[in-house]
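dumping this here before i forget
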Amino acid sequence: MFEDFVAIVRRLRRECPWDVQQTHDSTKHLTIEEAYELVDAIDAGDPDETKKELGDLFLHVLFHAHIAETDGTFDLADVMRAEMTKLVRRHPHVFGDEVVGGTGDVLRNWEAIKRAERAEAGTEEAGPSALDGVPDALPALLRAERVQEKAAAVGFDFPTAEDAWAKVREEAEEVREAADLDALEDEVGDLLFAVVNYARLRGVVPETALRRTVAKFSRRFRAVEADLGDRLAEAGLEEMDAAWDAAKAEEPR
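structure:
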């Protein structure tokens, strides 16, 4: 079946006018879109949709690998070989003699091995840093969490979640005291970063939490629209709030 999938991709790249013209650059935004559609399916708890979106994402892996093969840079076997080598190298507690005491040791070893890999390859940005390897293109909340995780891996972290919460309260007050728009932007950023820290220390993924809240808001607002219908534009805030509360009350707890 795998060989059949690869053969279909190869045929598309030979015979479909659109597929023939594509490059890594022209399709990278579609790859990102497919990754987010997979996340949506997982969030929805829909196994059929998750299966479909995994297939779409897998197609993009094969597609990019075939583009590289036709460019003469690498092929699918190179992709799989490099990934398998990396997985074995980064799991010495599974494939070697390393002994770990739990997840914390696994994550610290993982980051140490990644830093060693970058040092060997000479890919550090401005000298070795614990923060190397966090993509700039990540969504801001996710990037903040990854930066914090990497700093925490070398001991730069709040001792407890309560200490992180005290920082949230401090940053919230600084938002209120911001003197101008530039200062406000800085302080709002600091507040969001502090909230990410607190969430992380409490075991909550901030990106997931915000996606859930946005979905909840969208669901309830659509219910308000359906309730008020053509009167939405003329309805006052009090009537909208009542419709909102009604929509909220109807949701299963």
